Every structure is written in structure tokens, then in C-alpha cells.
């Protein structure tokens, strides 16, 4: 904490303490109500939930009645403007109703929490609860073994099966958990230490917020926890007549998943909730929708879900036409060659550097060392050399010298290299030498060079060519730039795959597929692929099948998905270090909840070694010592590769152990359950085992508890805190110790300069170790740098998706209006008006009456209501008004004609074959394409074809919106890729992306309007003889 913050805190007080003080008032009310609730009979306890629900219903009854009255009125209103105003009134009333519900929930909050605690206490102490049997109890007793019907009584037992594990309920909420539950109910993040019972804490706000019947979503980091927690906590809710389900138990787009969303409480993973939202915005009928209103979400392990998983967007994609596939297979041989020649070049340069430095020529040696570092920073020999006395300091001093004046002299360093790697920014650039090498055998020496498009356009315009010729020349220039941009992009992705992405670290190859390993959790991210062609590049590198290029059909970031909920809350053991990001992006406050018992874990200062070899030897020796004492050891690693390396070393020493990483993640629960036994050694990648406590036996506690050994400091302090937190739950003894070397990724990139200087000054030799609080703080400063960088990356991703989000809101609102039909008539009138305005604005500017006539006939197929004289003399608003009124009237006549034509056909089919068909297909054509409209036969007959016309408008609108939206998403993908080239023109790619996407979206909306209007005005049912 800075000095300024300390001063500020002394005046204003600690915010966390103020928050806890406010929550403490609620806890006091709960404690006061507990004796009253304890006196209730079992039936009286259950009756409380019915009373809560009735109180909420009564409070909102007036608004509910008003909404029903307005809905009835809408049925009789013909004027679309008046109808739209009534719909707006309903939306306002719904918001008012939600506010009233929240007010009532806050009133019953203490009593509801006391009721749930008492339910848990009775189960834990009495083994069963006996109540009057309801129809719901009888229904549950058919499928659940914990409910038994005995005459008119229902016996609710305290044991059941939770996702394959038999459990006996033995938990009772304690006071600290009331604090956590109250924080969650208020829409904040509760940070609770490992072992504080987050799953039980979550039941309090989940139960309370499920009472209004709007639905509560409980979000977990994986499907195992979703299935386990829903089965484990489910009976607690079901006793109180709330319904519960888990979407991960059901396939997408099924009736069972739809039913799961109708439950009062729905468990599931973040990905499935997000994907269901995207799928819902791709359906063609309301019956296919699965989700309802996004009301309240409680996110378990909120840092993992809302920060770690938020780095990659959710994408539903499909194949693109064959001609669009990127040339990974074509460029791969060239990349193989250039990477090999770079390795040889760097090896030669590095050997020269070592000789020069050994001879005392530090100027030339430092220069060569910098060249080797910029050529291949992950070279293992280079990393080892940099950990030796003074070498890293020499590299950093040389780099600083050449980075002066905005890298003005850096080209001198890069002249002998084929490409340059900026590991910190994950960037690779071909040098002039590399371009020449890659262009060998091509007629075009600039085959891999992106031209300065601005300069070339200026030169073209200076030639004063005829307009048509200049236009064609510009088109060719842009086409060539787009082709080269794609080629350079593909080449860059291949170079990244070869030099920055390592197998068994960032990804694994399993069953002939490249699968991403989550760098925070160590789990395989099934279904996720690296974006921008990087995944295909890695597939090419690993010689596995390169998946076809895909285009985006629907996409959203987790940030934008979760920001749509009315209320959002989360719980985790590690959120405080990311509190700024939670507030900036989600407007979520973090409140640190005190532990139920004091933490006894001993957190030792980091041990810093020069090389990895020394560090790993020390780790293995420490493991031997700890297991000899009968203590279990949890060893945390940052990659699959390191976990396997340690496993091999332990096997050589004949030390029994278990390995938990991305390749073995399915054994997670089983391995973690055994991790607390005496002498057991468990190697786990990062935060593996989240959501599952490591429980210790008394013999282990007596021996000193669980020992945590971290083999490397992670980029994020939060991940290190998560590893430490595996020990010391509920007052258990334990210890944690991190082992660090100057060869670690974090130390190499950010943290080792000062430490390297200090070790050199102190004359440390190989095998020596440093341990001091100052060193630990230095490492944490390095972690802060990485956290800031990672936040910048996530924020950048969000900034790009915010552009898409605004467009997505417009399109999805139109789709919903078309899908439900409520606002469709209003939207169609707006489309007619906008199309008229677009035509007149364009043609009036050019004073082209002939073009005006052509456009009106083209889209509206009607007589021209404006003479040429009026067209020239009247103002644009007057012309728009005249043409719009004529077009709107013509459209009503057109619909009536369609009804008159369809009615005899519908009557005939209904009277002769009505018992055979529920739905029928009615074809419509605008003269260019045919679309079949599915309509309900009985409804069409009874409504005199009114429902058929609505289905006609709905299906045409949905079809054309979807068709154009998919094309637009593809263009946006291309734009994002091509806009990255703006950096070469000293421009911000995001600014270019925002500007160009605005024009793309405007053009798309204009095209959607015109296409829909054109089909609606021209669409006809083909005659029988057609």
C-alpha cells in the first residue's frame, strides 16, 4: 500500500471494514430471529417459504394486474404507434415490479437466512424432517431416495447421492457465512478463504433470490462442480418447494434443457450459459428458445470465470467457402526452413557472444547477446547463460542503450536476424533479411511486404487518371493489400506457433487434436480454439489435421454476457488482487470475509536460486524431508511440462506421487480427495482441484499439516494465493513455500534485473540461495506488472467486443421483435420509412429523378407518387412523407390481397385434411428466390389467415436478418485482421476498427431494410400452374 493510500485510509477508514459493519447489522437481526424460528414445527418451517412468496406476490399484485390489463388492451388496438407505446409501458412496469421485489427481499432477508439455517440444523441433528405430504413430495418420492411417503406424511432424510458420491448432511451455517451470504445478496463479490464453505454460503442468497420465481443461475468453473453442487445442495431447496436443475445434465436445444431453465434455481458452467444465449439468438421459433430473463447469477470461483476464462470470447462458428482457407499448408515448409536457419544463426551469434564476454569484451559481447535474445528468447542455453553472474545485467544495459530514442538504433541489432521476437508483447516481425529469404523463388520481391496504402493512393491520385480508371486502380490496390495482409498474418501466426507456443505448456496434443490448456487452472479447455488462425498454425506445426477455416456465426465475450444480468454476485478465495478490474468491467465490489477460525498456516519467504536445476533439486530434497515427517505435500507447477519433469525425478528417487494436470484432469476429484493423507505427494498444475477441499486427518495435523510447495511464481499473485490457500483450512496447521529461479518465465521477463544485480554484488555461486522479504516483494512487483499487462489485453478484447456488442444489441432486438411478433409491425413500418428516406436522400443529392423512379419500383413495386417537378422542388422531408404514406398504404392493400388469395386454399386444406396436419408449408417467392413459410393450419383457418401473414412477415424478416448478419460477422472478422496493419502506418488499429465497423454496420442495416421491404412488397404465393 502506498504512503498516500495509508494517509487516506487513516482519514476515511477501511472500506472493507465499513462494508462488514453494515452487514453485521443484518447478521445481528438473523441471530435475534433464530430462537423464534427454532420454535416452529417442521410444517411451520416449510410454511415460511410460502409466506415469503405470498408477501412478494402481494407487493407486486397491483403492477401485475396493470400489465395484464395493458396486454388485453393491446389485442384490440390497431394503431401501431399506440400499440408500441403500450409495450413500452409494460417494460417500465416490469422494472418497477423488479424494484419492489428487491425491496421485499431485503425486508425478509434476515428471516429467510434464519429459516435456511434451521433447515440445515434439523437435518444435521435429527437425521430427518417429517412434514405433511404435498403432491410435489409424492412426485419427488418416485425418483429421489431421500424422500419417503408414509401415509399423509413425507419423510425427508439427510442422506442422498450427489453426482456419484453418497453424502450425509452434517452442515449448519455459522455467523461468518451469514456475512458472506449477505454480501452476495447485495450484488458483490465475497472473498472467502479455502475451507470456509463457499458452496454452503451460496445457498443463502440463492434461496432468497429464487423466491420471486424469476430464476437464479449458479455458475461453476466446470461441469463436475455444476452436477455435484446441484445434487448436493438440491434437497435443501426442494424441501422448501423450489425447483432445481443443472443444464450440464441435458443436451443443448432440447426440451429437457429448456425445462432446466424454467427451474427456480439452475446450475451450469459459464460456457454453457453463454452458448445458450447465442443459440437462442439463432432460433426461428419461440418454441426453440431455452433461456428466460437473465435475472440473478451467483458465480462460483468468480476470478476464474470472469477474469481467466474471459480472455477468449465464446464463438459459434461454421465453415467458410473453400476459396477462403488460409494457406497454412502452403507456407509451412517455408516457415520450417526460416525457423531452422534462425536457430542456426542465433546459435552461432550466441557462441560468439559467450567467447567475447569470456575474453572481457563486454561491448561486442553484449551486442551479440542482445541479438541472440531478440532472435530466440526461449532458447534454453541462452536462458541458462543469462542466469549466470552479471550476464542478465549486461543484456539489459545493452538493450537500454539501443532502445533509446524510440528504438532508433535497434535495426543495427536486427540486421543479421531473419525475424525478431518481442516475447513480452507476444509479437513477431520479419526483418529485411527474413523478407528476402521468404521471397526466394517468387517473382515479386515484395511478396511478404505490406505496402504503405496511404502513400500509394496519394501517388495514384496525383496521376490525374480518368475517374473510372482511377477507381479500378484503387480497387486493385485494395485487393492486393488484402491478399498480402492475409498472407503476412498467416506467416506471423505460423512463426508464433513455432517460437512462442510450446507443446505440453500452452497446449497438448491428444487424439490427433490440439487442445488448449488454461494457463490459470491447468485444465483442458474443450471446444475452445485460439483465434485469428493461431490454432490452425499450431495444427500445421504439430502435423495434425488442420481444421477447415471457419467463420463466426455468433460471438460474445463473457464480460458482455454476464453484464446483462439484473444482478450479479460472485465468491472465491482470491479476488482482492483483481478488485480494480472487477469494478471497472463489472461494477462489482470485493468484500473480504473474515475466517471462521484464525489461519495457522506458515507462509515462508521465497527461496531464489540462479538456475532451474538447483531449484528442482532443492524441491525434491524438501519433498523427501516432508514426507519422512508424515506430512502430505501439494506441489504446484505452472505447466504440464514441469509437472511431468518433476514426476520423472520423483520416480527416479522412488517417491510415490500423483500427478494432476491437463492430461489427467478427469481424475481431479479422486486425486484431490487423497491429497491430505499422510506422506502423499500430489503434483498439481496451478489451481487444479478448485472447489474441492483437501481434508486432513488428525495424524497429519499433529505432524504439521499440509505442505504447499510452489515450483515457480505464477504471473498472477491471485494464482499463488490460490495455491497457498489449499493449506490452512478451518484453522488447520500447514505451510507454504515458493521456489524461484532466475530462469523462470516471470523472472526472465520482468523480475530479475534488481535481484540479478544483488546476487552478483553478494558474489553468489551456483547452489547458493537467497531468502528475504525484500526479494519476495520484488517478485510481487514483477507480478503486478504482468497483471497490468494481462488486464490491458482483456480490456482491449472487451473494447473490440464492445463495438460488436452495440451492433449485437440492435440485431438481436430486431430478431426478438420478429420472433415474438409483438413489435414486428412497428419495425416493418420503420423499415419502410428508412428505405424511403435512403432512396430519396441518395437520388435527391444527385437530382436524378430517373434513378428515384427505378429505386421506388425496385423495392416497392408501386406507382411513383411524386412528379418530376415535385421531386425537384420539394424538400427531402416532404418527399419522404409523401412516398412513405403511399408505400404504407400499398403494403396494407398487398397484405389483404395475400390473405384473400390464401384463405380459400387454407379452408380447403383444413376441411379436407385438417385431421392429418398440424402445420403446413406455404411457399412465397419474390421472383428471384423461394422461401417456405411454416404455419399452424388451425390457427390460420380460425384467424382468417391473419396468423399466416404474421408468419410470412416473421420468417422473411428472420431469414434476411440472419443471412446478412452472418455475412457482416465475416466482414468484421476480416476487418479486425486487416486493421492490425494500421500499426505500420502509426495508427491505432482499434480506432480504425471502430470507424470502419460503423460504416459496415450502417450499410448492412440499410441492406437488411431494403431486402426485407422488397420481399414483403413483391412476395407472392405461386399459382398452381406456375
Q: In words, what does this structure look like?
A:
- The chain is of the alpha/beta class and 1026 residues long.
- It has 37 helices and 27 strands.
Describe the SSE topology.
Elements: H1 3-12, H2 15-38, H3 42-76, H4 80-126, E1 128-132, H5 135-141, E2 147-150, E3 153-157, E4 159-162, E5 165-168, H6 175-185, E6 189-191, H7 198-210, E7 216-220, H8 223-239, E8 244-246, H9 255-262, E9 265-269, H10 270-280, E10 296-300, H11 302-308, E11 314-319, H12 328-358, H13 362-375, H14 380-386, H15 391-402, H16 404-407, H17 410-414, E12 419-422, E13 427-430, H18 432-438, H19 453-462, H20 467-499, E14 507-510, E15 513-516, H21 534-541, E16 550-556, H22 558-562, E17 567-572, H23 579-586, E18 590-592, E19 602-603, E20 607-609, H24 612-628, E21 633-637, H25 640-652, E22 658-660, H26 668-674, E23 681-685, H27 698-703, E24 706-710, H28 717-724, E25 734-741, H29 745-761, H30 773-820, H31 824-845, H32 849-860, H33 868-873, H34 876-913, E26 919-925, E27 930-936, H35 937-942, H36 946-979, H37 989-1018
Parallel strand pairs: 6-17, 6-18, 7-9, 7-10, 8-9, 10-17, 19-25, 20-25, 21-23, 21-24, 22-23, 24-25
Antiparallel strand pairs: 1-3, 2-3, 4-5, 11-16, 12-13, 14-15, 26-27
Helix pairs in contact: 2-4, 2-6, 3-4, 4-7, 6-7, 7-8, 12-13, 12-20, 13-15, 19-20, 20-21, 29-30, 30-36, 30-37, 31-32, 31-34, 31-37, 36-37
